[in-house]
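pasting for ref. prot 1 ->
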Amino acid sequence: MNRRNRKAILKILNAGSFWSDAGAAMGVLPRPLWPKNIPVDSKNRVQASINLLYIESEGKRIIVDTGLGNRVDSKIRKIYSPSDENILTALEENNINRLDIDYVILTHLHFDHAGGLISNINGDDVVTFPNAEHVIQQKEWDIALDPDTLNKAAYNYEDHLHLIDNDKNLKLVDGDYNLTDEVSVHFTGGHTNGFQIVKITEDKPVYYTADVLSRELNLRIPLCFSYDVCRRDTAAAKEWILKDLKEKSGRLILNHDMEKSFIDF
């Protein structure tokens, strides 16, 4: 998708796919209904696309989320069977120079969204976007640094985050925040303690909501990830996002849907 809204230019970047547990993805949907909604493999997994977003706005170049990256260890590879594509291949396919990125927005810091913050390039682990500020909710950063029992398995500071932990690369925000007049982040919580979504403002707004509305299936309000820390907050976010999209004929970018990368309302 190339989309020009007033001044902003948007591109969806496909950074491959992986297979995740169907029960986690389907939430409250009973198991007999899983294959009627999304194809399930012999390990009871569903395939998830990794759609990232590139934005040019007011002279700033912005990446939203980073996917799994190219440093997937053998344990993750065995469980999730990721494809070979990653954020670096997506950048190359779209002629985007990682050194030119001004901001990286992280909706949250789970491995399939933050794994690409660090890349192995020429044998060295480096910050993928060394000249960018990484915009993360303070609440999300705090739980990633010191996860409680519920979140301990969800974050890996040493593997995914330690190289951006400096004054140059890290921009922690508390609540809604504008990067440009057109591009803003909005705190929702729900999926994680510090979850945020991205809105590109125009007469017909564009939303990148990652795991709040990651597939067409999730347009149904009750169908949230089973490991959301607060399904009530996820459902509330869905309701106001979908209301705005429908009222203003907006576009929703689907992070994990294998059939389509966006929906126009």
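and prot 2 ->
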Amino acid sequence: MTEVKNGQSGAATMLRRFVPLAILVGGLAAFFALHLDRYLSLTMLAENRMDLLAWVQRSGALAPVAFVAIYAVAVAISVPGATVLTLAGGFLFGTVLGSIYSVVGATLGAIAVFLAARTALGDVFRARAGPTLRKMEAGFRENAASYLLLLRLVPLFPFWLVNLVPALLGVSFRTYVWTTLVGILPGSAVYTSIGNGLGALVDAGKMPNLNIILSPEILLPLVGLGLLSLLPVAYKKLKARRQGA
């Protein structure tokens, strides 16, 4: 009888561990089922820009809170369209405040993904990892800050994937949070500055280029910052090699 109860308790505990992740996956499914993706488009933002500005004026302090909450939920359920939200932040609140609100919202959403994935999948992933994967995990954890800054700064990796992988590789919560905050700030500043001039662009019959961050003028400095973040890793390896010699 005791074994049955222990088994039921263990199954209930395992089920509870998957609840946060199931909520996020369910939110993503509901997002597309309700066709909410049509609202996260540049065309929709341009067409409703005057109404959005009027709403910000009426709402006062509620507007940035609502924006951060919407951004956080969008990132948590990993919907496409974060770039459009960042543009909206610059358009509605200006470059500086828009960058701050976008980074805060994105970081909160990324934290939700991290905690849900670590709770549901972290132990399972590590338990089934082979020797090669364990070695990679140990190396990643040892230099987690440098690797995460590289992944955040260089916009070549899907945001949802960079949110998920650290949870599976055992990165500490504190390292994950501060590298997310710092790493996404440059890219967010680029898009909010574009969003800040969205009204003038639309009035001139133009639309912003969402691939601008991949242009050499912007991408190369971001890659340079990413490479700088790897200097501690290079130093550790050089020091270890000298000591070994």
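The two ends are 62 Å apart (CA to CA).
The mean pLDDT is 82.
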